[in-house]
Design brief:
The protein is α/β, with parallel strands linked by helices. The chain contains four helices and five strands, in the order βαβαββαβα. The chain has a single domain, classed as Oxidized Rhodanese, domain 1, CATH 3.40.250.
């Protein structure tokens, strides 16, 4: 599984790299703090697969990087391959 550090994600954003950022946390978590991107809560991911492109890099994030690993495994089973987990999630991002 591809891991992306908060520093690498920051560099991707600064370079205008073409990728999709997906927040899989619950609504209340996103309202408290988020770094943008498409919001698809973990429980909705399988119903909203059509919103996630298979032809470009997709970075998924949650609070600690654990739930996003689970979602990435589900997406890989559904035929997605250009997936990256934000290592350490929002906790690591806030520590930058």
């Amino acid at each position: 599984m591809n891991q992306l550090s908060p520093e690498e994600l920051k560099a991707w954003r600064a370079s205008s790299k073409d990728f999709l950022l997906v927040d899989i946390r619950e609504d209340w978590e996103r309202e408290a703090f988020n770094i943008g991107g498409l919001h698809i809560p973990m429980g909705d991911i399988t119903r909203r697969l059509n919103e996630i492109p298979k032809d470009k890099d997709v970075v998924l994030y949650c609070e600690k990087g654990i739930r996003s690993v689970i979602v990435i495994q589900r997406l890989e089973d559904a035929g997605f391959h250009k997936l990256f987990n934000l290592a350490g999630g929002m906790k690591a991002w806030k520590a930058l």
